[in-house]
Amino acid sequence: MFRSNDRGSSGLMLIAIVSVTMLAGLIVLSAARIVVSVTRAQAVVDQAARDAADTLSGRLPGYACERAQRHADNVQLELVSCGVSDLHARVTLRVTAGNWTGLVRAHAGPPPD
User: Fold this and answer.
1) How far apart are CA 29 and CA 33, in angstroms?
2) So what's the architecture of 9-108 in CATH?
3) pTM of the model
């Protein structure tokens, strides 16, 4: 008569499937957290660059890079660089999500002639 040696393996298989599913879920959640953080940071850097360019043109009072710094400070991001040339502003912010760190950049100013 044939006897199976697979007795008791269903519990181990269930543990393996649950573990892999949980790990995949954590990876998806981490990736989603990064995407949300980068999307929010991109919106902030875009607005900071627009306001900096508007400051250069005289539409807004103050100094261009100080205005960009205020945007970064409001959402607790680090202003990496702010450069101005003529009426153009280039702003770079550092975004961190968990252990991941990246940069978001924006450029604003009048269109070319």
Assistant:
1) 6
2) 2-Layer Sandwich (3.30)
3) 0.79
